Structure formats: C-alpha cells, structure tokens
Amino acid sequence: MPNAKISALGCYTPPRVLTNQDLEKLIDTSDELIMEHTGIRERHIAGPEMATSDMVIEAARRALAQRGVDATEIDAILVCTVTPDHLFPSTACLVQHGIGAKSAWGFDLIAACCGFLYGLTVGSNLVMAGTSRKALVIGSDTMSRITDYERTNCVLFGDGAGAMLIEPAGEEDGGAGFIDFLGEIDGSGADFKMPAGGSRRPASHETVDQRLHYLHQDGPRVFKYASSKMHEVCRQLLERNHLSAEDVGIMIPHQASKRIITAAAEELGIAPERVMINLESYGNTTAGTLPLATRDAISAGRLKKGDIVLFAAVGAGYTVGAALWRWAY
Length: 329
Fold this sequence. Notes:
329 residues; 2 domains; 11 strands; globular; 10 helices; 4-stranded mixed beta sheet; alpha/beta
C-alpha cells in the first residue's frame, strides 16, 4: 500500500482581532495576567455574518490553490469541528457544495481540540487503503459563538481554520509521509462541555437564561490532565517507533496554553527552538490550531522538507493524541 503525505496547506483567520485590552473592558482581568497564565495576547473573532463553513471554504480553497488542484479532483472531505453551522446537514456537505467538489463524499468529525489530529489520521488511512486519492482534512472552529464573555475562560479562545490535502506518497518523496499515530479517549473528562443544546438537555428558555449553551470547563483539572497526558502520549509514540527527542525536527502541539506546551516539551527533552508556539496571536482555535501552527512554522523556516514532525493534542472528552509525520515539501 502507498504511504500518505501532506501535499498542501491552507489557512484562514477572520480579520477582526480581539486583544487583551479589549477583554479588560469585559471581565476582571489584565493583559499582564492573561499573558502570564496563557501566553495569549490577541485572538481573531468571526463577524456576525461568518460561520464555520465560511472559514473552512476559504482555507480549503487556499490549500487547493497552493497545490494547483481543482476541487473536482477531491474525493473525500473531513471537517473537524465542534462548532458546525448546524447539527445537520454536516458542515462537510456545505463545504463540498461551496468549493464545487462534485466527486467528493465526506463527514464531520468531533473530537474537540484533538479534532484535526484525528481527522488527519483518518484521512491518511483512507489514502493508504486506496479508498481516496485526494482527501481534504479541515479543522475549524468558531469558538466565539460558544464562549461566554462574562466568564474568565473567554481569554483562551479564538476563531480560525486550516486545511491539509492528503495524497499518496511516491518514490520521489523519499520516504516522506505518515509514520504513526497513538490516541486514546477518557470519558471521565465529559464535564468539559457545552451543557445544553443536545438530546440530553434540549434548548429551552431555561437553558438560555442559565447560559448553558456556552463552554463550561474546570480549568485547573483540565490543565493538570493535559500537562501530564501530552508528554505521556508523545513519549509512548516516540518509543514505539524507536525515536528520541533528538530525532524530532519540530514539535507542533495543540495551542491551548503556553505552560502546558512548555511543560510537555521539557519532559520530552525537546529544546524550545524545536517547539512551535503561536497562540500569542490566535489563542485556542480548537480544531484550527494545528494547521495554523504548521503554516507559521513553515513561514518562519522552522519546518522543512524531510523533517520529522511530532503533532500532539489533548482536548475535551477527554481526547488525547500524537502523530509522527515526515514532512513532504
């Protein structure tokens, strides 16, 4: 079976920027406090006319343009999101129609902050199995729609989208492509959620009044879990593939908190210059963070062809994952 490679990347963030100074006017916080605890200075926020599918379509078009591929060549679309336009139809259906991918099938994938990492793994396996020749994996969330700007956790989240095109790798790629993936889920983290709006507690006047359609999380508990799990799953994956921290060209983690990222990297023994952190400018865009961070790593010259990339994420659920790829371009 052929291996799968990442052949193109496209990203989009809305033009509006929400700074820490803006948030100082909404809640009891300060720029200094936010920077100290999260490392976030600003985040992009979608306007009232923009939904997740709009950002996904723009990111997808940019990825296709980079590769010079027409949308009609795409045969699979995976949209990773916890903020779909609607519960149904899937956002993948809207994107398929929006970009004109007439030959594609697809679906939405929900795994919170691990969404894109899981989608990338599913997409690569579709390609390796021969089910797909060109799979488009897109991570996007409009977190501003489910963020309560009366609660302090509003400092964490922003909006954005990123798309990667997955294709079969050939001999000319010199062994580039997918190496391995390790994931796990732990349902004990189910209290990190949006409490209302599903079949358990449908929308009602009461749920709206109680602000239950916004994200709720136990911050300290999530921080403790993510800090330990991110380095744990990365270490297991490296050991399983007989690799060390020195073999990793760059670690690209989910951008939830600078403290979580630096703690995991230190435990793994990966030097700071080989760890990509860009949350200062975007915050946590949930499924959008990995492609956005990958784009910025390429732009900064920190990710080059042939490098081994270690992707890692921990999200609500709990969801956990790490993946190894050898970069193809």
